[in-house]
Design brief:
Helix content is 33%, strand content 12%. It contains ten helices and ten strands. It is globular, with a radius of gyration of 19 Å. It starts with 49 loop residues before the first strand and ends in a 21-residue tail after the last helix.
Length: 326
């Protein structure tokens, strides 16, 4: 049983758990562009991962097996996705020290007295003794047993304090947040005893969230980018930056695809993108972004020329909630 109990103080905002000596060896190929980021508690994390939303069941297991074969070692799931057991089944024969598992607290488990129950439920479904990173999926809690009802009586900071206890008990090796506003992240940073290791939110070359990114950088919170290619609609050629403009221009210059350039942009910014795909060739294509780099001149061209789009993940079903972030 993985056990790690540590006293925490405000001056020591996060503590590394007992990580394997050389984790994720097969994920990071021996190339200059495959440098492994490190969380603010000293835990190494793969430079890119796979989002698993809607990847479930027998087909999901096959997709995840393809991903492992391709070289993926970071997998992002959530209680709300309903597929933690699918990921757990896939990882049953994999060396635990060679994968980095991210999951998220179910919305009905935000009350402090329910948080550990929610974490342990994730562990049971995953078949794991610990997860590498556990996030609050959003700042909005729902009523336990009726997750169609918002629970405005619980604050994100109260939930965070309970999640800190799960970290101290060694159930999770790092903790973070997802879909928070700047004010909400600030409240956790101010009121918590453990600094979030990660903030996961929508981020792409076409939706850079510069103020939130700046805050995360200042505080040493790693950005994990979901929807790193926007919300692709091939039939409409959306988002447009994948079909025209500077991203396409750079892709032609480098002999890469626009999607690869868009993903590599995020890695060069120091973020960990988690694109989702169930297509075997696309899985390989996405992971190949670890094999090249973008120089600073190219990065600046992309920063200054790609038109910024609106947020696509607006969490509309939470609008009206006291702690709705957007």
């Amino acid at each position: 049983m993985f056990t790690f109990i540590s006293r925490q103080t405000k001056s020591v905002r996060n503590v590394a758990s007992r990580a394997p000596a050389v984790p994720f060896q097969r994920f990071h190929r021996n190339t200059p562009s495959a440098t492994m980021p490190t969380l603010n508690n000293g835990l190494p994390i793969p430079a890119m991962g796979l989002g698993t939303y809607k990847i479930s069941g027998a087909d999901g297991v096959r997709t995840l097996q393809l991903a492992i074969t391709a070289g993926y070692r970071l997998f992002d799931t959530a209680s709300a996705y309903g597929n933690e057991s699918t990921l757990g089944e896939t990882l049953a024969g994999v060396d635990r020290s060679d994968v980095f598992v991210v999951s998220k607290l179910g919305p009905g488990f935000h009350r402090p007295e329910r948080v550990e129950e929610g974490v342990r439920g994730s562990l049971t479904r995953l078949g794991l003794e610990y997860v590498d990173l556990y996030l609050m999926h959003s700042p909005v809690g729902m009523v336990f047993g009726d997750e169609g009802l918002v629970d405005d009586g619980v604050s994100p900071v109260d939930t965070w304090h309970a999640l800190e206890e799960c970290y101290r008990k060694g159930l999770v090796r790092s903790i973070g947040v997802s879909n928070f506003s700047e004010a909400q992240l600030g409240a956790v940073l101010e009121g918590g005893g453990v600094k979030p290791a990660v903030h996961q939110f929508e981020c792409s070359v076409g939706f850079r969230e510069e103020r939130m990114v700046g805050m995360c950088r200042e505080e040493g919170v790693l950005v994990m980018a979901y929807r790193p290619l926007g919300k692709p609609k091939v039939e409409l050629k959306k988002p447009d930056y994948l079909y025209e403009g500077k991203v396409v221009e750079v892709a032609r210059e480098l002999g890469k695809t626009p999607a690869q350039v868009a993903l590599r942009f995020l890695i060069e910014e120091g973020f960990v993108p988690i694109p989702k795909s169930s297509n075997a060739e696309r899985l390989k294509e996405n992971l190949a972004v670890l094999d090249f780099k973008l120089d600073q001149e190219t990065m600046e061209r992309l920063r200054t020329s790609v038109v910024q789009h609106d947020r696509t993940a607006t969490l509309d079903w939470l609008k009206g909630a006291k702690h709705y972030p957007f």
